[in-house]
From TrEMBL:
This is YciI family protein. InterPro entries: Dimeric_a/b-barrel, YCII. Pfam families: YCII. Residues 1-99 form the YCII-related domain. It comes from Terrabacter lapilli. Belongs to the YciI family.
Amino acid sequence: MRFMIIVPSTPVIEQGGTGTQQQYADMQAHNEEMLKAGVFVDGEGLHPSSRGARAAWQDGEWVISDGPFTESKELVAGFTIIDVSSREEALEWLKKWPVSCAPEPGYALELRQILRAEDFGDELTPELREREEQMRVEAARNAARG
């Protein structure tokens, strides 16, 4: 089962700030622990919303709005993807998140299970499933090229 740990943004991140050396070291140690356990799939930080954009479907077309976006507590600063045997195991890894990377009381990470092809039922036909798998193979090739 794959899960995404969603890391919320903060006002400091939205102002272009980055972590401390200690936060980087703690996060790297956590990622290495997950890697050694065979559960770490991927993880990345994101630029602040000032460098992003949103697309909203309005009146039959996409309308683009450039960042920054005001509600930092609703923004994403990064993510980690893990592959574990259960939701309970995912929660155990979540509880090991470095405390130094939780900037304030009430800071909350979000855990969401990633949908698999089987989760879509009959709407995802065998032909669509096959194409989906081909796309994943191509995407892995692209990622390998860097």
